Amino acid sequence: MLSRKINSGYKKIKENFIKKVTLKNINETDSSVLFELQIENFWFKDKSMKFILESKSQTKILSYTITNNKVSVELPIKLISELNEIGHLKFYFRNKKMLIKSNVEVNEDFIFNGAYFHIATNKHIILKRNFQEYTFHEEPLIVDDIQSDYETLTLKGINYNFELMHVKEPHVIAINKNKMRQIDTVIDLSTNNITVKNLSLFSQGDWLFYLRIKKEIHPIRLNYSKTVKLKTYHHSASIMKTNKSYMKAVFSPHVITLDSATFENLDQDHITLSFSQQELELKGNAKLIVEEPDGKLDISKQLTKIDDYSFETIIDMRELFGNFKVVRFFVETGGIQPLKYQFYIKQKQMLNGNAKSFHSTVNSQITGFKFYRRKDKSLGLMIRKPRLRKLVTDVEGFSVSGFLGSMERFKECKPYLLLEDRLEQKSVKYPLAHEFTINFNPIDLLGIKSRGKTVIDLFVIVEDSSGYVIRKEKIKYEKANYKKDNYYAYITHDDEERNQHHFLITTTPFNNLKIETFMIPNFVEIPSDTSRKDNKTWLIGERTNTAQDNGYILFKYLQRETDLDVYYVIDSESEDYEKIKDNEHVLSFGSKEHFEIAFKAKVLLGTHDLENLLPYKPAKGFFNYENTFKVFLQHGVLGRKNVEYHKKFYEDPFDLFIVSSDPEKYDVVMDQLGYEEEEVKVTGLARFDRLYNVEKPRDILLMPTWRDWINTDEKFLESEYYNRYISLINNQELLELLNKYDVNLNFYPHYRSQDYFSIGLSENNERVKFIQLGKKKVQDLLREHALLITDFSSVSFDFTLLGKPVIYYHFDVRQFFRRGILRPVDETFLGRIAHTEEDLVELIKERLELNFANYENDLTQIVKYQDKNNCKRIYDEVIKGLDND
User: Fold this and answer.
1) Same domain flag for 717 and 843
2) pLDDT category, 470, cuts 50, 70, 90?
3) Which of 319, 356, 726, 820 has the fewest CB atoms inside 10 Å of its own CB, making it the most exposed?
């Protein structure tokens, strides 16, 4: 008891010394915007405080006044007018940056000088100008009355004569922070009333309403004080006015408060859910809706009435077993105006019954099921498949040793170690025991190789009694020390034709084991001394199957403008090879000529790892690889996802690292990837030399990047990534928009996902076209489209350089950047961001209505040189590097 009092007293004393800063209010005057802050536990305020506005173009010290514990910071009109996109208002006390929090009642949006600004707090105050393509007017559209119906509002008594002003297709829009939603709008010219429909599409939160006439936007002001109630399928809404009398709608989910919920086992595969509540008299056609947050599950079950306020239904647990961990439950009322209710559980003790938490064998796996109260106090179900415990603990000779656990949770199943060729999925498997040592047989490995140079992945698989694979997971190495150019074990083996095969046990960046292999064909003559490299011989490549990126464009420049002996290497089975094979300096990967040039080339230039350039392992000890001059041309501009090109990941790193801007050089490649200043050169990417538009493109390009956590076919087809894009290209509203505006959506998936999406699209709408890898160059695709939809791909920078709009689809942004982001989101995602399919379709609709008008973007911090001399700068820097080598 005494220690508890001491701790409580200590916390109170500590609380009195912690400095706190809270944004309490924002006010506008004719000359400035005033930020009112409340400060606590500050001394010597006047002399020790400093408020600074930072933006890309300026850093300004702001004036302020103090009254007791209240600080008023003045942001002048002039500074706001100079703010092109985003500004950061920071507070320093005694040269130390203070954390600023926000009061929830702060008005976070305002219109100033024709621009719309959103204010947020994230450690400091962020002032962001949104929707720059529009002009916002402070003169409002006045509404005398509002009437509501199911998912519909009618605005009456409007002080605007649409017929007299010859206004065509005005639209009511709603804004929530950085999201703009256009609403179906019908204007009755005889009464001058506006009806807005389909309000079920709104998400939860506060939305401000405006009228948009072309690119002019006016706020809607309510000329009364009452609150109007509205019901949609998903939400209840309160229509009210803000402190400036502007029209605002607050959307919140329908909730049904439970008195109790009981879960009882009916048999091995079914449970009965019964619940009681006192708020809603449900009709006989009410249903229980079962959903998975990512949309991979959507089941409805008819509810059976027990009495006026109690219902039950039967749930088949087999339907809930999939590649997901959580499902949610709702009640749908049915009828011509259905409402979807979220359960509200006051206390977790309201959930009971013998099936509240249980285990069941599903797909030969003992799986845990638990009904629970979620953080938002709704009803959820957690599903836990048994964990497959596995690890390789040692690599010795060409054997691996390790352990496998948890097999008791798999019924009548057998585990194996599967070795699978990455390209063609040929495989061999070895039975596994709890503790195992497996010596890999070179004969087995030769039998599954798809080509001379390839990768063999290691998986643990579990087969059921029918031999069907129910689990497939990669296996990690306990002693992994990941570097791209090292290995843990190495053997060679000659086949019957005297081709020499090399096998190296290595790991991935995630410490998963793999076997890399390459072949020295019997027709290759290895020079007696490969240490002597020719400075005039340069070897260039991209991925082994492409010739359309920075590598090929630089290759063509060097052939045209220099006297170098320069070569480009590519797989002879690729689509791009057929287009360039007549050039005598184009080498077929793995050919005799390829080996000859690889042995003597001094300069290696690649857009990806140099595995793609060399027919052997790029590592010390292999044909004097360490004597080469290695140049990383890059595939795109760095600044988003944390990449695997850190200097620490190489025993023999790149000698020259090409970037496009000073922030990319200093903030990313030097500060985060560990390279020295002289190793990083700002030249711009070679492909920027070839960027130009074709005349008036009309179509939309959908070009998502890859997800590195998807590593099996099963995971891909069950992934949120796959299901989100399949859902998007089948979105009915989107297809109607494409037809209305006579526009095609051309889908160019990442090369790793091409096969999966090509199957999923085979029966799709004729407005959605699938672009096969290699049929078009990426540069041509960018030129031939008016709008790009991507997620995190750096190809967006090329599109922005062309002066065209980009929309980003960030449905899984947290998982994608789970290992960190190299630069802040607002610095590199130039355009608009959608987090839901609904928001994405709305942004596409907006661009179509505006004839693909571009957003206002500042590229100066992304691409330093916007000329056509990038290849020349790269060449000059390589020559300087060779002179100093």
Assistant:
1) yes
2) very high
3) 820
607 has a pLDDT exceeding 80: yes
Tokens of 274: 């019964």
- List of residues 6+ apart from 333 with CB closer than 8 A: 280, 282, 283, 286, 339, 340, 341
Confirm whether 739 is domain-assigned: yes
**pLDDT of 666-712, one tens digit each?**
988 999 899 999 999 999 999 999 887 777 788 999 999 888 777 66
User: What CATH number is attached to the domain comprising 220?
Assistant: 2.60.40
CB neighbourhood size of 765 (10 A): 17
Q: Which residues contact 173 (CB under 8 A, 6 or more apart)?
A: 180, 181, 182, 183, 209, 210, 211, 212, 217
Amino acid letter for position 644: E
- pLDDT of 646 > 60? The answer is yes
Q: Do the beta carbons of residue 76 and residue 29 sit within 8 Å?
A: no
Please say whether the beta carbons of 11 and 32 come within 8 A: no
281-323 per-position pLDDT tens digit: 777 688 999 988 766 677 889 999 888 788 999 998 888 876 5
Q: How far apart are CA 182 and CA 209, in angstroms?
A: 10
Asked if residue 883 belongs to a domain, the reply is: no
- 243, amino acid identity: N
- Helix residue spans in 613-667 (DSSP H): 662-663
Host domain of residue 160:
135-245
* Arithmetic mean of pLDDT over the chain: 88
Q: What is the chain's percent helix, strand, coil content, to nearest 5?
A: 20, 40, 40
| Whole-angstrom distance, CA of residue 349 vs CA of residue 262 | 11
**Mean pLDDT in residue range 250-265:** 93
**164 and 210 within one domain:** yes
Say how far apart CA 877 and CA 681 lie, in whole Å: 7
Q: Report the C-alpha gap between 109 and 100 in whole angstroms.
A: 18
- The answer to whether residue 315 is domain-embedded is yes
Q: Residues with Cβ < 8 Å from 542, sequence gap 6 or more?
A: 548, 549, 550, 551, 552, 570, 606, 607, 608, 612, 635
pTM above 0.90, yes or no: no
User: Residue holding tokens 């790991």?
Assistant: 507
Residues 545 and 675 in one domain: yes
Tell me what pLDDT residue 581 has.
95
Do 264 and 295 belong together in one domain? yes
Q: Are residue 743 and residue 829 in the same domain, yes or no?
A: yes
Q: Phi, psi (5° rounding) for residue 239? A: -95, 120
- SS3 track for 107-147: CCEEEECCEEEEEEECECEEEEEECCCCEECCCCEEECEEE
Has residue 5 been placed in a domain? no
The last residue of a domain, from among 520, 552, 582: 520
pLDDT digits (tens, 9 = 90+) for 491-546: 999 999 999 999 999 999 999 999 999 999 999 999 999 999 999 999 999 999 99
The conformation of residue 669, written as its DSSP 8-state character, comes to: I
655 and 543 together in one domain: yes
Q: Of 520, 554, 577, which residue constitutes the final position of a domain?
A: 520
Instruction: State yes or no: pLDDT of 644 exceeds 80.
Output: yes
Which percentage of the chain shows pLDDT scores above 70? Answer: 93
Number of domains in the chain: 6
CA atoms within 13 A on the CB side of 828: 22
